[in-house]
UniProtKB/TrEMBL annotation:
Keywords: ATP-binding, Kinase, Nucleotide-binding, Transferase. It holds the Pfam family SKI. GO terms for molecular function: ATP binding; gluconokinase activity. GO terms for biological process: carbohydrate metabolic process. SUPFAM superfamilies: P-loop containing nucleoside triphosphate hydrolases (SSF52540). This is Gluconokinase. It catalyses: D-gluconate + ATP = 6-phospho-D-gluconate + ADP + H(+). GO terms for cellular component: cytoplasm. Belongs to the gluconokinase GntK/GntV family. It comes from Glomus cerebriforme. Gene3D superfamilies: P-loop containing nucleotide triphosphate hydrolases.
Amino acid sequence: MVLVFILMGTSASGKSHIGNLIAQELDVPFIEGDDLHSSSGIQKMKSGIPLNDEDRKPWLNAVKNEIINVSKSSSKPYIFVACSALKYNYREFLRKVPNNDNIKVWFIYLKGSKQLFQQRILERQNHFMKAKMLDSQFDSLEEPNQDSEERIIVVDVSKEADKVKEEIIEKINTISYDVI
């Protein structure tokens, strides 16, 4: 059984940074969803144009295919993925891995305020997502609800990255196979 943990949330929530920290500490694979965007999608975002559902369809397919490929080539119990997965139907699409009962997908929602993420965007360099795009991401965000959506972990990311990493590792270690 491979547990796939998709770190989800808006831009600047820390998906890539936290994912890398966890993957290094646990010595497990990490998939960077941003690397799977098409060049036209990246160009669109660089130009300040939000992606729509049609733009995201091939990207979400690429993320799912990468999860399947990595799960076949890795002997590790976990795979971590950075992918915004802002909408419920995106998360449902990624949860359903065809013909494979050996992969269970969980989402870790990196929750924080728009103000915090705006500040982080302004501080980072060389990223295609610009500060003005954050509003469109919060507009698209359908926050996961632990009561009505399966396999969700919510983590407040207003603390230091190491604290967030520790909290996530602690939470995934409490997942027993009877709840997956």
